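Handout, tutorial session.
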Amino acid sequence: MREVRRRYRDNSLVVETDFHTDDGVLRLVDSMPPHEKNQFDQPCLVRMLECVSGSVQVRMRWIVRFAYGDSVPWVRHVRQTSPEHDEYILAIAGPHTAVLRGDLLPQRVAHERAHELVFALEAGQRRSWVMQWSQDHEEVPPPMDPVQETRDSEDFWQEWTGKINYTGPHAGAVYRSLATLKALTYAPTGGMVAAPTTSLPETAGGSRNWDYRYCWLRDATLVLLALDNFGCSDEAEAWRRWLVRAVAGDPADAQIMYGVDGQRHLLEWEVDWLSGYHGAQPVRVGNGAYRQLQLDVYGEVMDALHLARERGVRENADTWALQRGMIKHLEKVWQQPDKGLWEVRGPDRHFTHSRVMVWVAFDRAVRAAEEDGLPGQVQRWRELRDAVHAEVLEHGWNDELGAFTQYYGGTTLDAATLLMPSVGFLPGSDERVRSTIRAVERELRRGVLVDRYSTDEEASSVDGLAGREGSFLACSFWLVDALALSGRRQEAEEMFDELVQLSNDVGLFAEEYDGRTGLFAGNFPQAFSHLALVNSAAVLYGGHTRGEMSRRNGGGSR
């Protein structure tokens, strides 16, 4: 193999990979029909091989395992003649069924639990396969035309990205990020997973490995902003519906994350029979942080639903009653310490960012009453909003550091404080904001990258975890926003230019980037990174930010 190149077809999620060999060039075309075209919710992979030039020898191996590799299926070759001719390989294990059809089918390998196919392709020749999944072995998915399915998938994505309204710099990166966010969305409910992977390590061989295949309430506002800012209003409204449905019930039972279908119990366990990515263990399923108290999510939910109102999504009695219930519960718990934005596994603390987002929750409740005329104890909410604001200014600020710290009374920094001007807590022109930005640049910035918080001995006692991690890409984009909002626009644009270049060859970002090795770290692709990129594009080149006053009547920024 001399070279491998890959790309998406324009703005679609149809990916082409070219294999350049000494004998010719082979092109692999992969796609997955989107749910809108696959209403039975039976996921499938469409794969086509085309010989572009020369003659290429191909070896294809087909190995199927379920239950994280612990379940070996019963595999058999099926030939049907009635009611129509159909030939496929069927793999069954418990509730799982996989079906493979194709122009050529692999054969069983002796003494191995695998199937293999060896063949040659000449220039101009093509072979295709479709692998489908079903939860009922008696309901085998029907055959599909791989060429037509690939064409339909490409048309779907071209039509979807055609409604994106963005003409600023790095349009390709913005389009790719929005398409990635759409792809991370579970169409039946509108829920968006943080990433489609689990346990990709934050450092090679380390133990900071988490399952991100769930929907975080923390992403709520950024999702709505990213989608609605650039014309994806249907997806924004679907996310709002998922959000309201997920948090419905007793506000005291609200979680920081849910399953794509609103599932609440995300019990964390370790898959001890898997060695992990490059030996990084443990491999985790589920996420124990779902039971943590993280007060910032109340601000995120209130902010997201306030934004939805401002974008014209009609409020009703039920959704406002839900928000009032959340605020009523927050009135009881807002003074408690929590685990914070980063879901630390150390002691609870009064994290500055959490306190800021408590202020956001009360502020958005006040604005709902003042701007939208919704009923509630607005005077009480004003008093609490003002009390939290004064508290943060007193206890979150450190005169010696000249910065807002990670938590009250601490001396470590946290990139989350960069969000203060974005959420409207303080204007970017405030000298305390500007001083905090400079402190973050001194202590947390690594070239164009930004670490999420200090990693000294004091910091390790905060998160309760051993080992280092890469720089958080979302935090790096937060610095872009903070620079722009504080009047350092040229620096913000230059930093944005550099960050966009860190994507992989097809425009995707992981959770983190290791500046020492030049490699991604953490789960991939990461919604938070792509959300932050799109939000920075909005801050710099058009679109609304979350701290603005009502936009419906042309209101300006705060």
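The second record follows below. Compare its token runs with those of the first.
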Amino acid sequence: MSELPAPVPEVSTHCPYCALQCGTRLHGDADVGVKVSPADFPVNRGRLCQKGWTAADVLHTADRLTRPLVRGPDGRLRPASWDTALDIVARGLRVLRDRHGPDALAVLGGGGLTNEKAYLLGKFARLALGTSQIDYNGRFCMSSAAAAGNAAFGLDRGLPFPVTDLRDADTVLLAGANVAETMPPLLQHLDRARLIVVDPRRTATAERAALHLQPVPGTDLTLAFGLLHIAVAEGLVDREYVHERTAGFDTAARRAGAWWPERVEEITGVPASAQRRAVRMLAEARGAYVLTGRGAEQHSKGTDTVAAFINLALALGLPGRTGSGYGCLTGQGNGQGGREHGQKADQLPGYRSLTDPAARAHVAGVWGVPPDTLPGPGRSAYELLDALGRADGPKALLVLGSNPAVSAPHAAHVTGRLAALDLLVVADFVPSETARMADVVLPVTQWAEEEGTLTNLEGRVLRRRALLPPPPPVRSDLRVLHDLAVRLGEPGDRYPTDPRAVFEELRAASRGGRADYSGITYDRLDAGEALYWPCPDTPDAPHPGTPRLFLDRFAHPDGRARFADLDHRAPAEETGPAFPLYATTGRVLAHYQSGAQTRRVAELTDAVPEPFVQVHPDTAARCGLADRGLARVVSARGGMTARVRTDATMRLDTVFVPFHFPDEGRANLFTHPALDPRSGMPEFKVCAVRLAPLSGVTP
């Protein structure tokens, strides 16, 4: 885009994509167009990735939703007025609730929703609908690390330190994180560090590493056991730290004792010498960090895998020290705040537990209802989707900020469950694959058209600011929830439509919780204060926030971190004669999540226009595949079509497929729905597949 004429509107805000939440400036308006430029914000320091530079293109995509759509008797979606659409939704919800009870109604939120939307959505589900059936797509992203972090530290914040602390690290271990493609501006904070990358693929991040550990998919847990074994056997454990600041070390060390390096090598394929080198690099560093990403977390044993890497970090004395630590690289834009304020199946605002009587009483008091009227915990995201339309499951689903037709595992099965609903309602700004299945589609605002807050991966609360008014007659998600609640008999003032008013209520609801936002205000954020939660509302001077957690004590009552007592577990599915290869999935630089936004940006679709399967040339030859030819990737659950990309750095037993594409290009047609028993995370990162050539078909 050429330079815009001056003067034009301008605003400081943040990128709509990943949890790094790079600072941006927006210039322009609806007439001349919008231009994005990077801000000198700490996490991105004047840099953006390709998605960030092109983010404004989605604002005016040709198929932008601007009018409500209602499915008619002929099965087609047709424009309708807001009153007509909302009346249809409210009437359908009332009928189903009266006939089957409140849990016949369900809600699926998203990790990209602002804090205000996530908060009001949870309140709407539990009061206006009266249902326990609410969860969000962050269950597919951060839940394993959250469960492990809460167990180890008594608190879950992705990074318990600012991103900028990483600049002084000597060594950083990245377990299952390809930051060179998923959040490129983060790399500048890792320039000094020697990187140890744990990943089955030779990713762009692994190319920069001093040491690449390339395990068999699904064996990260075993590898982490082995690394702890080496730390103990070679006398590299920080005994003083372990004695003074932790509990449970002896049991964890005894468990790890069975996993000597050569045994670990047999299972993982990682040479024993490389295992030893990795531990020594961490132990000998003046400042070291262990960071996990989706590659370690998106498993049916993801919580245990993250906990095993936390065990390693604790043994080396890293967490709770300036210049060292453990952290999780949160994925979605508000993946952190989105799981703190009530759209998760088992949580209330402030990261409170829905089963805690004191938590229920506090939040019910803020909401002005008796505590016993609040429903209990509901199903996790995949369990919720799997139950749709069944005799004992929800009959109606309201979706905000999510595209489960593409993003959920066992996708053909999930779209079948969506089709079985009596009522599917989707609020979105583009016709996503899930929206196209809906009975009612409600057009809502985009990021540059709305105010609010988000919480980035380091626990810093940020202001989203609007540059443009939404196109008429688009409404905000807050307005949609208000209008539906009123139609369902709720008092209108219980559901504010002004984000600032919602945030003021969120402050009160979070007061005293683990994620305490009560001392954070729009005025303080607008004044440029860097506020990290917990930030309580203190009676004297304003609380400065907590950029670094755990420096004095961990959040358990005794102040000690907990080593996890873990045992070995294999993946839910092993390879065999029928399905001889491991498949793993992930992101590519040009696209984001289900691709609903990035597939509408010409520059990004030109970069990666179609699904592909990355495979070693020898493996491709054995399967009868040619580079740039077409293939079917098939598991016991189904298959997808992809373009073959041969890559000599791939393991011979492993293929990789990105998950950003729809229809027959959905990677989640073959992924496994096995769930982590503690987090509800599906087994996205490993399953057994076979490859077969395909001709005459376009993906």
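Points raised in discussion: The two ends are 31 Å apart (CA to CA).
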